[in-house]
Amino acid sequence: MFGKPTGTIFVLLLLPRAFSFSICPPSSSFTAARCHAAVAIRQLKCCGMAGIDPREREREEIERKYALKSAMIGSKMCGRCWLQTAWCICSCASKFQDVACDPPQGMPIDVILYSHVDEFMRKSNTGSLLHLCSPLVRTHLLVCGRSDDEHRLEELLEARKGKACVVYPSDDATPVESFLEQQHDTAGASGMTFILLEGTWRQARKMEKRVRSDIPRVAIPPMEGGADGRMNTIMAFGEVVLKMPMGTEVKKSLLKRMDQLMKAKQDALFEIHGRHGTNTENSRRRRFPQERDAAYSKWELL
Fold this sequence. Notes:
The protein is of the alpha/beta class. It is 44% helix and 12% strand. It is globular and about 50 Å long.
């Protein structure tokens, strides 16, 4: 039994009784064996958490990811533009300050960035640029699923009852232009709060369901010339700005600043990654110029 092995050797991965075992011959390479081992480890972890409520498990995972990413702020990453500190573009924002220091009546526009934890601190994220658009924009960053942030979201919505909406194209969504006209006819469109969902479409669908159903959903028109109809966060907010009842010069100033910040981040991403980077980051980085050009070609018509 323990003599010199002959024939094919099999690697046997023993798992708890509840799971089946995996077999992989050497011909499938060490990579395959490592994949089986990874599956075994995941199964063992799940076995240890079997008694935990799935929602509690999800919350703990969100808190863990949030803590890991937050720990990078300051030493490695800028907490405002979400780029490495060596490539921070926040100092550029002062050069783009072509809007009045005193915001006009009805400003600033309140924006709640309701972000998926995987989107939080992602370099290619554009919602983070809205932090740099003050004094015309006031942002509140909340991570979906974090207990503190969920409580904060409820507080903000309660304080802005009747003056908040979710920018999301649900089946019952009202066109943003019609919604703002209704607000203007009743209490005025000033003081509005817009909730922007940050994540993939799949993530956004789940996040939208977590926002109170009594908060209106509004839809923005698709961006012509965009990448496969996609629209990043700052572009979506730009579409809202176009429909806002404010002076043309104020709109121009804000949209111009948003475009300049997009260009600065675009240049930084190309410098950081070059031809390298993760598939997700590279995919977003390649779309950036196309998305920005599509947005600005529409914004400059004002």
